[in-house]
Amino acid sequence: MISTLRTLSATLLIGGSLLSSCNSTKQSAEQADLIVYNGTVYTVNDTFEKAEAFAVRDGKIVAVGTTADIQEQYTATEELDADGKAIYPGLIDAHSHFYRYGLGLQSADLVSTQSFKEVVQQLVAQREKYPEADWITGRGWDQNDWAEKEFPTKDTLDQLFPETPVIITRVDGHAALANQKALDLAGVTPQTKMVGGLVEVKDSNMTGILIDNAVDMVTSKIPEADEDEKRQALKNAEENVFAVGLTSVDDAGLDKSTVDLIDAMQQQGHLQIRVYAMLNPTKENKDHYFKNGPYKTDRLNVRSFKVYADGALGSRGANLLKSYSDRDNHYGFLLASEQEFRDLAREMNEHGFQMNSHAIGDSANRLLLDIYGNVLGGKNDKRWRIEHAQIVNPADMNKFGQYSIIPSVQPTHATSDMYWAGDRLGNERIKHAYPFKELMQQNGYIPLGSDFPVEDINPFYTFHAAVARQDAKNYPEGGFQMENALSREDALRGMTVWAANSNFEENEKGSIEAGKFADFILVDKDLMTIAPAEMRGVQVLRTYVNGKQVYKK
Question: Where is each Aminodeoxyfutalosine deaminase/Imidazolonepropionase-like composite domain found (predicted)?
C-alpha cells in the first residue's frame, strides 16, 4: 500500500513537472498577432526557399520556418491553418491604370465584343441604364477581334445619339471612336492637326476615329467625376484587385489631386491597397514634386513620372524604324518631340525622380534608350524603366544592361497581339517582339504587370502568358515564340520581389521574410506545379495586407 502511494506520488510529481514545463514554454513564447501554419509557403527569398509557417506582428512578418518551430516560438490571437495549400507573397502589378480602371467600371464594358454591331448594342443598353448621363462612354473594343478588321465609323452613333456626346476607347487606350456631337464639343474638325495624334479623315469627312493625342482633345471635355465618385471608383477597383491576389499596384499616370485623394483615403483607413504612383509630367505635378521631392508612406510611394513616347501597335501608333508591313510609308509617331523627351530626362535626373517611359515601337525604344543612356552614363541604381518594351531592335537590346534600364513588361500583351502583330511587323521583325526572356537577361530581373484595364486584372493570366506564352484558349499549341518564355520561378519573382525592386521597395515587400510587410495570398492550386492549362483558373482563397485579411472567397 505504501509502495503504491509512493508510485502514485512520483507519477503526479512527474506529470506536474511536465505540465509546468509546457506552461513555462508557452509563457516564454513570443506574442504575435497571426500565425499561418501547415502551408506550402513560397518565400521568394534569394534562394527561393519554401517554408511551412510564419508569424506576423504589427503588420510585419517576424519569423518564417516549420510549423513546429513557429508554433513553439510564438503564440497568437489568430491562427490560420493553410491545409497544405500554396501561399505566395502578395502579388504586385508593376504596370496598371488602377484609378482609371475604377472609373471605367462605371462605363460600358466593350471588352471581347465580336463586332461593331455588338458594341452598339452595349451602348444602347448603357444609355437605358443611365438615361440622365451627360456622356456615353465605353472602353475595350478591338477591331482586330472582328470579322471586319477595319476601324468603325461614327455614322451609327450619329444616328442613335445625335444630341448626346459619345466616345468609346479602343482596348489599348490609344485610339477612340467619337460621334459628331462629341467632336463638335471638342472643336475637332477635318482640318485639326497636332503633334503625336491623328484625326482620321476620308473623302474630306471625319470618320470619328481619333488616334493618341487626338483622343485627349475629346476626353478632356468629359465632366470630371466628383469626389464621391472618385472615392467609389478607388474602392471598387480595390475590391476587385484584392479578389485576384494583388496587394500592390503601380498606377501609371496620375495627377497630384488623385495622389492626394489616395493618400487621404489610405490615412483614413478607407483604402488598404498599396500604390506606387507614376505621375503625369504636367507643369502642376513637376512644380510641386520637384520642389518637395518624392513622397513615401507605408502604402503610397511617389517618386516617378510616366512619359509616353509613342502609341500602340494595334492602332498603328507605335513608332517603328521601318514602315508598317500592312501600311506602306506609315511609321507611327512620337507623342512629343525628341527635345521634349531629352528635357524631361534631364529634369528627372536633376530632381531625383525615376523616369518610366511607355515605348512600344523599335524606333521609340531606341530613342528612349539612347536618351536614358546619355543621362545615366553607364551602370547605376536610378532604376529608370521602359514600360512595355514590346519591339526592340537587336542592336539596342544590350542598352538595357549597359545603362541599368529596367524593362517593365506585360506578358498578356504578347498573347493578345500574337494573332495580328505579325501583320503589322512582318516575319522578321516579329521575332524581336515581346522578348521577355532576353530582356530579363539584361539585368537579371524583370518586373511583370498587366496594363489593366487594357488587359484583364487577373495576375494569373499574366503568369500563364509569361510561362506558357498562350492565351485563354491555350493557343497556340506549344506556345508563341517560346524562346522568350519565362520559367515559373522567374514569373513569380517578376510579380513579387522583382516588381518591388523596380519600385525601390524590395526591402519592405515582395517576399515572405522577417521584417517585411505581411502581404500574402492563399490559393487553391499551386502555380508552381499544376499544368499550364490550369493556371488561369487558380482562385484566391484569402488575401492579406499588413497581416489583416482584406478578401476571403
Answer: 53-74
Cα 311 off chain centre by: 18
Handedness of CA 140, 451, 415, 207 (dihedral sign): positive
DSSP 173: S
Task: Specify the amino acid at residue 345.
Answer: A
- 67 in Cβ contact with 80 (< 8 Å): no
Burial track 404-422 (b if 16+ CB lie within 10 A, e otherwise): bbbbbbbbbbbbbbbebbb
CA quadruple 544, 545, 549, 553: dihedral sign: negative
The number of angstroms, rounded, from the C-alpha of 360 to the middle of its chain's C-alpha atoms is 16
Pairwise CA distance, residues 452 & 251, whole Å: 10
d(CA 241, CA 223): 26
Q: What is the pLDDT of residues 490-544, one digit of tens each?
A: 999 999 999 999 999 999 999 999 999 999 999 999 999 999 999 999 999 999 9
% of the chain exceeding 70 in pLDDT: 95
Q: Which three cell numbers stand for residue 489?
A: 520561378
How would you class 477 by CB atoms within 10 Å of its CB: exposed for 0-12, middle for 13-18, buried for 19 or more? exposed
Coil vs helix vs strand at 387: strand
Host H or E run for residue 214: helix 213-219
